[in-house]
Amino acid sequence: MKAGRCHVRSHITLSPHLYTFTLLLTMELRVTALLLLVVCATIFTTTEGVIPRCCVGVSNSISCGVLRKVDKYEVQKTSSSCDTAALILHMKNKTYCAHPRYDKVLEMPKKNQRKWIRDCKKMLRKMTQ
């Protein structure tokens, strides 16, 4: 042997049954850990995490042109998770948080575009007075 190198071999002999049990236990722990990971990932993605989406501020000046483009809206009420009352306005690629008073404008039928914009401007003027 060369100087500085020391080889120590330990021979632990396991019975075949104990060896098989050790392998099964190791595999069982790996499978259990993997299943736990999958379950946690599923729960996390289906609940969108635990953090709710909330508007923390609202816009008080939204034009009729923007309001006309709203596809749908949701009402956010004050609760323990969201402390601001708001309207969540959904457009093609954007989302706005608006003051709840805009719901009256959004409930108007949008059949005639010119009439809708005229009525919208009237309502907005009344709201700001």
From TrEMBL:
- Gene Ontology cellular component list: extracellular space
Q: Which Pfam family name is an example for this entry?
A: IL8
Q: Which residues form the Chemokine interleukin-8-like domain?
A: 51-124
Q: Which UniProt keywords apply?
A: Cytokine
- GO MF entry, a single one: chemokine activity
SMART domains with a match to the protein in the record: SCY (SM00199)
Give a yes or no for keyword rRNA-binding in this entry: no
Keyword Aminoacyl-tRNA synthetase in record: no
Q: Which InterPro entries match?
A: Chemokine_IL8-like_dom, Interleukin_8-like_sf
Which Gene Ontology BP terms does the record give? immune response
Matching SUPFAM superfamilies: Interleukin 8-like chemokines
Q: What is this protein called?
A: Chemokine interleukin-8-like domain-containing protein
